User: Fold this.
Amino acid sequence: MNIPGYEYLPHPADVRFTAYGATLEEVFEQAAHAMFHVIIDTAVLNPEHSVDIKLESEGIDNLLYDYLSELLYLFEVEEIVFGQFRVDSIEKTDGSYILHGQASGEITDPERHSFETEVKAVTYHQLEITKEKDGYSAHVIVDT
Amino acid sequence: MTQQQAKELVRKVKENIFEIPTDFQGGMRVPGRIFVSDKLMNDLEVNTLRQTANVAMLPGIQKYSMAMPDAHFGYGFPIGGVAAFDAHEGIISPGGVGFDINCGVRIIRTDMEASEVRPHISKLMDELFKAVPSGVGSKSRLRVSGSELDDAFNYGARWAVESGYGVEADIEHCEDGGFMDAADPLKVGDKARKRGKPQFGTLGSGNHFLEVQEVDKIYDPEIAKAYGIREGTITIMIHCGSRGAGHQICTDYLRIMEQASRKYGIDLPDKQLACAPADSREGQDYFKAMAAGANYAWANRQVITHWVRETFERVFGRDADELGMDLVYDVAHNVAKLEEHEIDGEKKSVYVHRKGATRAFPVGHSDIPQAYRSVGQPVLIPGSMGTPSYILHGGEQAMELTFGSACHGAGRVMGRGEAKRKFRGEVLEKQLADKGITVKATHLSMLAEEAPEVYKSSSEVVNVVHELNIARKVVRVKPIGVAKG
Assistant:
C-alpha cells in the first residue's frame, strides 16, 4: 500500500509536488496538505474552525484542480488557514466525480501566524493523477 | 529526445536570436524564437524551449512563438512568452496571461536628491511599510462597496483618480490610459469579487515590492529628460498586480476553457494552454473578465501611489507637488491585448499575449502618451531585490521582431525551496545593509526566497533587448530602500 505523504520536487519559480495515498481520498488529503505547507508550517495549526466541502467535477483531474482551488478561495475569503484535511468520499457517478470532505484550521491572524509563501493558484500544467500498483499519486504545480 | 539533442535542434539565426524549427516537435504551426545571448542560451532549461514549442501549436499563431531574454520554465506558456493570434482565426488563452493578471510596474519620479532622503530612509521605509499593506493574509485599509468594485473593474486607474487617489496626469502616464475598455464586470465571477474586495489596495507577496531608488546612471540624457529623470534623484517603484481577484478570474476561466478546448476540438499539448477561439463566446467572456482584472490592478497601483505620496508628504513635511512626485509610466507585464500589427506586409488585428513581457512601443506609436511620442514608450524592467532596475524606451526593431515586446525582469533561476535552504534572511538583510539598502519585510525568512542569486542578472537580460534595438537603455536606478510582503 502507498504510504500517505508528499514530496516537493525542484522547480525554478513555482512549487511542484507529488502526493501519495492508498486511496484517491488519501491522495487528495495529502495534496491539500502539501499545498498549505507551502503557505505555512501546518504542524502548528489547531483544528479550531472547520468548513464542509462538497464538489462535483467532470474528470478526476478537474476534481483535484477544483478541490485545491476551493481551499485557496476559502483560505482567503473565510480567512481560515487550514492545517488538517479530511476527504470522506470521492464517488464516481455518471460522467462526474463527487467529493465530500472537511478542512480545519485557525482564523487567519498575521500576528499569530508566520506565513511563508503565497500560493496564487493551482495550475493545470502537468497535473496528473496516476493509478499505481499500491494506490495513487498526484503531481501538482502551484503558482507562487 | 535528450536535453542535449533538444538543444542541438535550436539554430542561431544571428547574435541574440535563436530559432526553434517546426520539426523540434510535431504539430508546431510556426517556429519558435528565443531572444537570448549565447550565455543565456547556454543556461536556458530545455523545458522553456518545450513550452515555447507548445505555444507554437496553438491555432492562428502569427510569425513565431517567442520567448524574451528573461524566459524561464513556467506553466502553459513559458514566463517571458509572447505570442500573437489572429483576431478571427486564432485563440485566446488564460494560460498566456497567467494568474496574476496585469501584474505590472510603475515608477514615480521626484525632485529630491538621494542625499536628502538617505538620512531618513529607515523612518521612510517604516512608514511606507505601514501605509501599504503587504504579505500573505494582509487586508486593505480601504473598504470598497460592491459598486465601487464594479467601477474599479470598469475604469481602473481612472476610477481611482476620480475618487481622489491621484491626479489626472497619472492616467495619461499609464499603459492604455490606466484601463482597458473591453472590461465587463458581469463576466467576473462571485468568487473573484469576494477575493478582490478585501485585498484592494494591497501589495501582495512573493516578488512584489515597493522600492525607493536612486538614479544611478543615465544612458540617454535627452530621453531621460523627456521622462523627467535626473541623475542622483530619487525614484519610487511599485511592482504588484490584481491580487486574489485576478488569480480567481484565471482559475475560473481555465476551467471554462478546458471544456471549450474540447468543444471546439482544439488539440492541446498541455492542459494549462486551454483556450477558445478568439471570437467565440468563451474567448470573449474571458477577454472581458481579464480586462476587468487588469483594470483592478491599475486601480490597485494607483491607490498605492496615493498612499506613497501621502507618506512622503508626512515624512518630509512638503506636499507631493513640491517634491515633484509625478508618475513617469505604468506598464502591464501579464496581459492579452487586441492590437494591430504588420504581418507579411499587411495590417492585421491580433490578440498579443504577453506573459512576463513588457509592451515596448517605438517612437511615433499612437498608443504612447503625447509627451513621450517623440522618444518612445518607457519600458520598465524591475531588478531583483537589491539589484538595479532599468528604464528603457521602445526601440525601432520592437514591432518587427517581437510584436512590440521586451523582457519584464531578471527571470528566476532557482526555486523557492532551494533558495530557502541556501540563504538566510538575517544574513541577506545584513548584506543588503552593507550595500546601503534598507529592507522591511513581514518575515525575514521570506527574503531568502528573493535573494539576488535566485535571479538571472538583470543587466545581462537588458543588454539583449538593448543590442537588438527592441528597447534601448535610458536610465539605471539602484535601490536604497525595499519593502516586501
Q: What stands out?
A: The longest helix of chain B spans residues 281-316.
